[in-house]
Amino acid sequence: MLELGATLDVPSRLELGDVTESIEVTAAAPLMQTQEASVGGVVAGSQLDRMPVNGRNHTRLIVLMAGTSDIDRAQGRGAESGTIKVSVNGQRTQDNNYTLDGMDNNFMHMNSPGGSPPMDAIQEFRVATNNSAEYGRTAGANVNIAIKSGTRDLHGTFYEYLRNDKLDANPWFNNRDGIRKTPFKQNQYGLSLGGPVLLPTRYIGRDKTFWFVAWEDFRSRRANTLRLTTPTAQLRAGNFAGVARIYDPLTTRMSPTGALLRQRFPGDAIPASRLNPAMKALVELLMPAPNQPGPTNNFVRQESTRNDRRHIVVRVDHVFSSRDNFFARWLHQRVGQHTPNANPNLENFTRFDVDNIAAGWSHVVGPSAVVEVRYAYHHPWNPIENNHLKSPKPQRAAGRAWDQAFRTFRKV
């Protein structure tokens, strides 16, 4: 079997033999392959189907290869889609090159995997190092994924992977502190289906045209207990008694020794007339009122981290002749993650959306030459992370306060 991305040299010399002569074929691997200098391995479809993988993402299987480590200390993006960054042969985790059907599949910013097809859509993938110029661009490994194609018979899969706090025991530390189990729900489900193109009475493509479709959804909800230190009512009124010493900046003067001196506010309380209305509005806008006693960690809330993913793969293959083959493939990825903030007035949203379209034509010129023409459009989109204010009403109030403060400043 010729593996993905491998080069095979089979020298042969045939001689006439007797009818009683037999040929024995063994599966022993050669000690060294001399066709190229690359070193690597292939994870085949049978391994992808049978191996348990948390999150069902192919990048987690890269660590099966020798010389790999998933200890990540480098920058990277794409974890929202379930991928992990892997160091190969001591190189940085950003130094890998990811290709899909032989074409680019990278998120160039911080160099992370781009589109992440469902594992049931992957025929096999190869991790190779010390590559030739064909796969050049990075110092690490080249990870090349081959997407499945349809066959002359209808084949498919349907699956769901479930994790739920109802199936888990409460952690030991929670039991010690008298805390109930943290709510957790995770569902990963999808299907894959492929076969020949059959149009009754019009076209029978059992040996010519094939199609393949894969779809997967992922939904995860994990609760978090978040703590925040927020100003108390006393601090919001400008009274810092017992908290800090507050000095009046308008009383600044220079001592005979050259030191700057200021008078302390009586009782460490700022007069109400000296409080900037814009600053008061911003505090009310951004900082919630305490719901716990004390000056620190006085606001506690529980909120879930939400991660939603959708992956769709569509592929069509057509055999024009024994010398010509054509394929077209589309990968559609939509990933969104909401990470709760300890401050309920702010929300963190991260997206990692990818569209990867590819088409290729292969032509067998002769016994020793093949011509391949391929074209791909790869569009990963990641706005990093955006913080959003939840309510527009306080924003308008803060805007009016800023305007009032600016007009007051101009009058002065």
Give structural attributes.
5 helices, 3 domains, 412 residues, Ferric Hydroxamate Uptake Protein, Chain A, domain 1, single chain, disordered C terminus, mainly beta, 5-stranded mixed sheet
Number of domains: 3
Mean pLDDT over the residues: 83
Portion in beta strands: 35-45%
Distance between the termini: 85 Å
Spans of at least 5 consecutive residues whose pLDDT stays below 50 are 391-395, 408-412
Describe the largest sheet. 9 strands, antiparallel
Class by SSE composition = mainly beta
- SSE order, one letter for each helix or strand: EHEEEEEEEEEHEEHEEHEEEEEEH
Note the overall shape: elongated
- Relative helix content: 10-25%
Computed over alpha carbons, the radius of gyration is 31 Å
Describe this structure in words.
There is one protein chain. The chain has 412 residues and is mostly beta strands. It folds into 3 domains: 39-147, Ferric Hydroxamate Uptake Protein, Chain A, domain 1 (Beta Complex); 155-227 and 301-389; 239-274, no CATH class. It is 11% helix and 40% strand. It is built from 5 helices and 20 strands. Strands 10, 11, 12, 15, 16, 17, 18, 19 and 20 form a 9-stranded antiparallel sheet that branches. Strands 1-8-9-4-5 form a 5-stranded mixed sheet. Helix 4 (277-286) runs antiparallel to helix 5 (392-411). The longest helix has 20 residues, at 392-411.
SSE inventory with pairings:
Layout: E1 39-44, H1 45-50, E2 68-69, E3 87-88, E4 97-100, E5 103-104, E6 106-107, E7 112-113, E8 122-129, E9 142-147, E10 155-164, H2 172-177, E11 184-199, E12 203-228, H3 233-236, E13 253-254, E14 260-261, H4 277-286, E15 299-319, E16 324-340, E17 346-351, E18 353-366, E19 369-381, E20 386-389, H5 392-411
Parallel strand pairs: 4-9
Antiparallel strand pairs: 1-8, 2-3, 4-5, 6-7, 8-9, 10-11, 11-12, 12-15, 13-14, 15-16, 16-17, 16-18, 17-20, 18-19
Helix pairs in contact: 4-5
